Write the structure tokens for this entry.
Amino acid sequence: VHALNKKETVQALIGTKNYEPKNSASSFAPVNIALVKYWGKRNSELNLPVTSSLSLSLPLGTHTSLKAHSKDLLFLNGKQVDLQTSFAKKLFDFVDLFRDKKTTLFIETKNDIPTGAGLASSASGFAALTLALNDFFSLQLSPKELSILARLGSGSASRSLFSGFVQWHKGVRDDGLDSYAEPLDARWDDLSIGLWIISDKTKPIDSRQAMQNTVESSPLYKAWPDTVSHDLSVMKEAIKTHNFSLLGRTAEQNALTMHATMLAAYPSIVYFLPESIEAMQKIWQLRKDGLEVYFTMDAGPNIKLLFLEKDRKTLESQLPNLHTHSNSIP
Ligand code: PMV
């Protein structure tokens, strides 16, 4: 098996399918928060990860609709987007993998949460776009195939095809056809997530570049694959037995270990703002005072809290800026 490029991957999956454009299609995909993180690629063209990862989806996400139109147009959150922006280019480059030259589209996409705030809107965005394209071109792809295709847009998008707990299997093949996500057979209704938005400014360095710099220059990255395989098995056990202390501790420690690999990169990658550190200290203090709450953080300054439904009211009164959500299992 040899490496494919993106176009060849799409062709490998849709080449033999019926390619019949409809007039319109629409879709929704959830935001996901990684409890065991994806950090580092073994193939950066195909977004093939060094390790597997595990996430929990929120009930919030991205809504995308496609309509056949005389020329390409893009609207994000109700506003028209210039097709020369990097956002539009990334999105249409992805669409180009699926269409021929004569198919032009009016694309409308809306996020339930702020774009570019380290809240993984690119994951739900590419997952929703993949679902909409699958519907628009009547491709009838399987969940596994959809996950592989969404991964080509953004690695974590492979997990945003599903609700609840989701594991992305890293795969070993050079063509990436075994690197896809699938939902775990588990539910945990009173497990909740809080979003503590510290800043909605765009991040200083995007996750693609940050991952590459970490893999290339951080002396701590060597330990990351072993950390992840340990944390994945502990996390799955915590989910199976509804052991919240174990889930929270494992998620928090995994996130901080990921950030430690970045701090040790050269030049150092620091996503924390002073307010992020204050937020962590507040959470540690709440825990000392007997309230079981844990946090995780991604490639941005914002904090995601993990807590049980019974503590929602107390937490909301302690942290007025918190947006709380149940998880996405219907
Ligand atoms: O899929 P990307 O390139 O946006 O990378 C996401 C990386 C993290 O959010 C930091 C971790 C993860 O597993 O989602």
Observations:
- The first strand starts at residue 24 and ends at 36.
